[in-house]
Amino acid sequence: MCWRLSAVFVSALLGSLRSSSADSYVLSDDKGLGRDFDGIGGLSGGGATSRLLVNYPEPYRSQILDYLFKPNFGASLHILKVEIGGDGQTTDGTEPSHMHYEDDENYFRGYEWWLMKEAKKRNPDIVLIGLPWSFPGWLGHGKDWPYDFPDVTADYVVKWIIGAKKYHDLHIQYVGIWNERNFDAKYIKVLRDTLDRVGLKGVGIIAADGDWSIANSMISDPYLYNSVDVIGAHYPGTNTVPQALKTLKKLWSSEDYSTFNDDVGAGCWARILNQNYVNGHMTSTISWNLVASYYEELPFGRCGLMTAQEPWSGNYVVSHPIWITAHTTQFTQPGWTYLQTVGHLAKGGSYVALTDGKGNLTVVIETMTHDHSVCIRPPLPAFNLTSQTATFNLQGSFASVKELQVWRSQFNFKTQKPSFFEKLTAVKLVNGSFTLDLAEDEVYTLTTITTGTKGSYADPPPSARFPKAYKDNFNAQDPPFSEASNFADQTGVFEYFMNTSDPGPHVFTMRQVVTQRPVTWTADADQTISVIGDFQWKNLTVTCDAFMENVKNGGVFIAARVSKGGEEVRRAKGVFFWVFANGTYSVTSDIGGQTVVTQGKSGTEAFTWYTLSLTVQGQKASGTLNGKLLWTSSVPVEPPNGWAAIGTASFELAQFDNFSVVAE
User: Fold this and answer.
1) Where are the domains of the chain?
2) Is 180 among the residues known to form the active site?
């Protein structure tokens, strides 16, 4: 224990000698309590943010899950919020719907079911939430809008909730409306009625996962008011609005953080976890995202509580936001209550106090400076913070507390020697008081709870680039997941497929299955695409067997140096080698096919397997069809590098097999 903390605890014993220089704060329940605490959570989805996690080998995958969900070990999250997949691009990829088509239901697609079960396995009390970002195209009836037939949309969402219970024994406790899009009051009421009608009265509705504007509508519409259980806002900047407070509903920051997970990101998280309640009376804060488990060059790389983006190496990073989370989550539980006596420290920073109503008390203090706690959004107004001495006086039912456990994180930006979630010697209270010397950029937890632990495992394997030689024949007879390892769908959905009609070598394939443009959340491409590999690849050969199923307008491609994904996928450039069912081929430098490098006759048709191979070397490229050279051409200098990819010319059925890539 360092000398400064020794002095702190001596001062706690001799607090009266320093009372003149210390600012004093009362922690008491004499005048009642504040709002009920609903928990701290992480968000998987919005979209495909956990895509690479499922591919991790054991024991590393289980270790990552332990750091996220295991009580008294790491982040010990209280809440897991997941995307209800809708087949559309929702930031870093697409997540598959449980109903690709109106007459289709499948509750084993994707990985969110698996993730919820793994979270529940570690913490049976974890709260589960579902929220749609996009919807399958059939639901919009030709429009990019899910509300024209509210009963159809409500039925679709309720089926997902029922499927979670029926097939996975998962109880979804809350469901949202449509992420960060305009809410529809009629739809919310229909959803509430539908839930009630099928016996799901206990499933609460969170609305509207955007700004606070729904509060005005709730105040003027009693039916809507009674339909909504939680008002959820995104990136509220720790502030709420009077109308939301007037509703007396639970107020949540139902998506927040979204910041690069270095130490400034950890500082952002520390500040908002406290100040969302101090400033905004928000009783839950949920991080987007849970774990950065997607290719880092996609939008918002490493904006998770921790990083797990290398399943091929097994490497992962327990980023410092994990331990900032632990300062709250390991010493509280949903159902605890905030004290009314919370607030700002005199020289900057904040403190909150919570109780379980059974004599336990947890106090969390943060002194994050402005420049070391900036979140990605919204802009953070300037404020000053300096080191200070603070005395806390426990009164009311806490006056008899004699000892508090102490956990501390010091960012130490100047020395670059941080210390996170360090257990210190317990502080002895004298006359119900203790005094702390608080430096800049620190987080303290003082608590009666004695079960806190900084969990750890042996270091994972070292970081490594994606293998330069990689192949996948998709021969998965009983795959644990519907998607092939390491492929990251950016438009459309590519699934393992058993082609029982094929008598030859293509029984097990990967198939693009989305046949109609989804009700979108962002700008999906007009083509489907799944990327894979190392974004730094420059010179490489991509080979894949392809099978078109659209006789009139079918088309497939393989690609190299793909420059964009996520919500920027429409602007992807690279080298795209296309063949079409009309007997032609094309080579373009963009996914939209607007810039043609070369084109000609290929003799290709639907319902026939072809082997495509693309080689890119410097500014030269060539393509073969069934082993025979079809074209050679110069290609643009830009982009100089990017992913490999496969895809289709439109939302159409097509199959792929025997994928391989060899890069220099």
Assistant:
1) 3-34+340-447, 41-307, 469-663
2) yes
